[in-house]
Amino acid sequence: MLNYLDKIKNTESGNFFLMAGPCAIEGEDIAMRIAEKIISITDKLQIPYIFKGSYRKANRSKGSSFTGIGDEKALRILERIGREFNVPTVTDIHESGEAAMAAAYVDVLQIPAFLCRQTDLLIAAAETGKVVNVKKGQFLSAGSMKFVVEKVKEAGNNKVILTDRGNTFGYQDLIVDYRGLPEMQSFGVPVVMDCTHSLQQPNQASGVTGGKPELILTIAKAAIAVGADGLFIETHPDPANAKSDGANMLHLDLLEETLTKLIRIRQAIL
Known about the structure:
single chain; two-stranded antiparallel ribbon; globular
């Protein structure tokens, strides 16, 4: 993603950019269908788009939870989406040794929130030369992310994005502090609001994370109103039967209406 800052922050439309897709790569057919649908919407609305899909889910509540279809198989699906639809792709990595492997297939390496302080992981991601999207830990202040940005840049990579996904609020809920978005923007990097994971309800007695997807538009509206550069939305044509994080996903059929409303807010504050 050459000149990625210009591409995602200074588009002709003035729109925010979007990272969206399924939580996990469940298979080639469904991933391609989701990508095709989202791209038809973002092209229509002139929204810069990055396809999101995890090639493996390492952080699961229960050992029996779905983790993936196989690393290489999922990464090749991400590569095909990027090539056939001519869009950048993003996936998360969990250990330093995964950075170079994933970088061979995708354009953006994402550091999960729980791992955002892992120095070796940040450096390994930075050294690939790919864009590095770091999710802010639920346990960290926005100001603390300054040091995350410094780690990546000191490793020789200035292509950093920060993504907010809420803060721990008690044992089974999260809350979004919107003051953090402009604070993180002051570090000179684009800032994204994760509109789906910020509505998770973790640590449920069932061992399956809950969520409040009916509030996705509320979270997104507020983020755009305070000037977020981009949005992160996990979406699926059948969230109830998604293999991962279905409880807080946006139904794919609702995406165009949601984005259309958000564009109106964006236009109003420009």
